[in-house]
């Protein structure tokens, strides 16, 4: 007889493990299945984010930022540092240590909340039976009242640049370079490409980013994207827009990349090439043909607003469903689904999900952009304030960027907040809260912000929405 659970979760990334913990906290007999195996053969928890995504990349970003600061940013403070060197092996060792600590922590959380952990690859069969193919070759069948699909995503590869795991790599490989490449090519100027390109650029690589689109960061606010592009180019990133990669050729330990731009066909030779053109949902071998779960035209699992699939009692969350592939989005979906299974009427506000790019400075936003509001025909007003006029930013030698706030022209309700600047990833939470509570620009205007802080730029941007900024000259009102 198959093992029986009230909730079975397939995948232990930020969506899956959060769903499992919440379901267990709500009194459900819960199991979670994970197939990820480390180099030592042991199962690891936490999915892409903790193992080869969010966490290790941020560890490298932090190390590279400190190296760049020591090399180029301390003299302005009167600190004279000579012969700064980077020990890449030690940097990678630190990164791996952080990953190990956090994945071990997830295992402890699952155990501490009474979640049964099952190692192997889970496949949903008909009638909500989950079959687990284990490492030792055995197969276990599990009967579930409810199944939560949280298998995550994998990097997209493209035919012109087949991965070889050494010279041509995906985002995972770019976290493992044993030494700083002299010349690094990055295909894709999205979140992953910019973050990983920034890491190795700061450590000394000559980095060329090839982006097929003509627009830089098309999903971000145009003013913010323009500021960011200018800053990144100044930092040394060679960003080529409208550059469509058409082929590659290995030449010894190097790779020659062919691409098309407005001037015709061109080639560049790199020591390493990172393919960072996005991610796709991972469903291979996880859904049997008779399980009843439907996919949409892009390969995502089809779900409604509360993450129900086409099969009653089967839910899907995180990167395998529509919406941005963000860890925090998946986690919130996991909580929502667990609460629904427990009989609660849970909802999720998809209009208040923040996006962050962990470059230096950071880019973060929540809500609508001006382009989106224009396309929707919404009458809006905008206010912006530069960090250059913020005392704390000057003291931190971090005056690049701005905060921009968009509000409804009639109701004054905050519709979006966009930030390019130091600690933007932390400050954007103020915009998330404003959207979540349907705040007006006036609510932010009447809020007392501490001085001196970077967040004062949020206050001033809100004031600027109505031409009332204190620490800059406001634009003249139209008569």
UniProtKB/TrEMBL annotation:
<keyword id="KW-0963">Cytoplasm</keyword>
<keyword id="KW-0274">FAD</keyword>
<dbReference type="InterPro" id="IPR023753">
    <property type="entry name" value="FAD/NAD-binding_dom"/>
</dbReference>
<protein>
    <recommendedName>
        <fullName>Dihydrolipoyl dehydrogenase</fullName>
        <ecNumber>1.8.1.4</ecNumber>
    </recommendedName>
</protein>
<feature type="domain" description="FAD/NAD(P)-binding">
    <location>
        <begin position="6"/>
        <end position="334"/>
    </location>
</feature>
<dbReference type="Pfam" id="PF02852">
    <property type="entry name" value="Pyr_redox_dim"/>
</dbReference>
<dbReference type="InterPro" id="IPR004099">
    <property type="entry name" value="Pyr_nucl-diS_OxRdtase_dimer"/>
</dbReference>
<dbReference type="InterPro" id="IPR006258">
    <property type="entry name" value="Lipoamide_DH"/>
</dbReference>
<feature type="domain" description="Pyridine nucleotide-disulphide oxidoreductase dimerisation">
    <location>
        <begin position="353"/>
        <end position="462"/>
    </location>
</feature>
<dbReference type="InterPro" id="IPR036188">
    <property type="entry name" value="FAD/NAD-bd_sf"/>
</dbReference>
<dbReference type="InterPro" id="IPR050151">
    <property type="entry name" value="Class-I_Pyr_Nuc-Dis_Oxidored"/>
</dbReference>
<dbReference type="InterPro" id="IPR001100">
    <property type="entry name" value="Pyr_nuc-diS_OxRdtase"/>
</dbReference>
<keyword id="KW-1015">Disulfide bond</keyword>
<dbReference type="InterPro" id="IPR016156">
    <property type="entry name" value="FAD/NAD-linked_Rdtase_dimer_sf"/>
</dbReference>
<keyword id="KW-0520">NAD</keyword>
<comment type="similarity">
    <text>Belongs to the class-I pyridine nucleotide-disulfide oxidoreductase family.</text>
</comment>
<dbReference type="InterPro" id="IPR012999">
    <property type="entry name" value="Pyr_OxRdtase_I_AS"/>
</dbReference>
<dbReference type="Pfam" id="PF07992">
    <property type="entry name" value="Pyr_redox_2"/>
</dbReference>
<keyword id="KW-0560">Oxidoreductase</keyword>
<dbReference type="GO" id="GO:0004148">
    <property type="term" value="F:dihydrolipoyl dehydrogenase (NADH) activity"/>
</dbReference>
<keyword id="KW-0285">Flavoprotein</keyword>
<keyword id="KW-0676">Redox-active center</keyword>
């Amino acid at each position: 007889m198959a093992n029986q659970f009230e909730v079975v979760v397939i995948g232990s990334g930020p969506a899956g493990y959060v769903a499992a913990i919440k379901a267990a906290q709500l009194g459900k007999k819960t199991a979670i299945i994970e197939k990820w195996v480390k180099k030592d053969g042991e199962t690891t928890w936490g999915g892409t984010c903790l193992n080869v995504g969010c966490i290790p990349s941020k560890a490298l970003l932090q190390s590279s930022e400190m190296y760049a600061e020591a090399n180029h940013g301390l003299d302005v403070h009167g600190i004279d540092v000579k012969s700064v060197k980077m020990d890449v092996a030690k940097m990678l060792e630190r990164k791996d240590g952080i990953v190990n600590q956090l994945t071990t922590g997830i295992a402890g959380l699952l155990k501490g909340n009474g979640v049964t952990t099952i190692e192997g690859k889970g496949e949903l069969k008909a009638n909500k039976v989950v079959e687990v193919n284990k490492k030792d070759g055995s197969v276990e069948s599990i009967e579930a009242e409810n199944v939560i699909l949280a298998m995550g995503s994998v990097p997209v590869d493209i035919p012109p640049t087949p991965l070889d795991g050494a010279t041509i790599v995906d985002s995972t490989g770019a976290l493992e370079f044993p030494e700083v490449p002299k010349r690094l090519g990055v295909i894709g100027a999205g979140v992953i490409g910019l973050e990983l390109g920034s890491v190795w650029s700061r450590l000394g690589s000559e980095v060329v980013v090839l982006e097929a689109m003509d627009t830089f960061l098309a999903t971000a606010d145009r003013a913010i994207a323009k500021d960011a592009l200018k800053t990144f180019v100044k930092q040394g990133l060679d960003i080529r827009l409208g550059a469509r990669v058409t082929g590659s050729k290995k030449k010894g330990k190097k790779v020659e990349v062919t691409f098309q731009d407005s001037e015709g066909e061109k080639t560049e030779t790199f020591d390493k090439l990172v393919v960072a053109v996005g991610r796709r949902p991972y469903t291979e071998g996880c859904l049997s043909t008779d399980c009843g779960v439907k996919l949409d035209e892009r390969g995502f699992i089809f779900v409604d607003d509360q993450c129900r699939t086409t099969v009653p009692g089967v839910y899907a969350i995180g990167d395998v469903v529509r919406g941005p592939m963000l860890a925090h989005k998946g986690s919130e979906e996991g909580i929502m689904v667990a609460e629904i299974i427990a009989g609660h009427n849970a909802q999720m506000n998809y209009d208040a999900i923040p996006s962050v790019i962990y470059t230096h400075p950071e880019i973060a936003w929540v809500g609508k952009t001006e382009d989106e509001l224009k396309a929707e025909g919404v009458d809006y007003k905008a206010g912006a304030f530069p960090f250059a006029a913020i005392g704390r930013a000057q003291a931190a030698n971090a005056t690049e960027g701005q905060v921009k706030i968009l509000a409804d022209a009639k109701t004054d309700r905050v519709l979006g907040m966009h930030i390019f600047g130091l600690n933007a990833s932390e400050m954007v939470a103020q915009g998330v809260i404003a959207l979540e509570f349907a705040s007006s620009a006036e609510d932010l205007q009447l809020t007392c912000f501490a001085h001196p802080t970077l967040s004062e730029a949020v206050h001033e941007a809100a004031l600027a929405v109505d031409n009332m900024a204190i620490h800059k000259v406001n634009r003249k009102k139209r008569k």
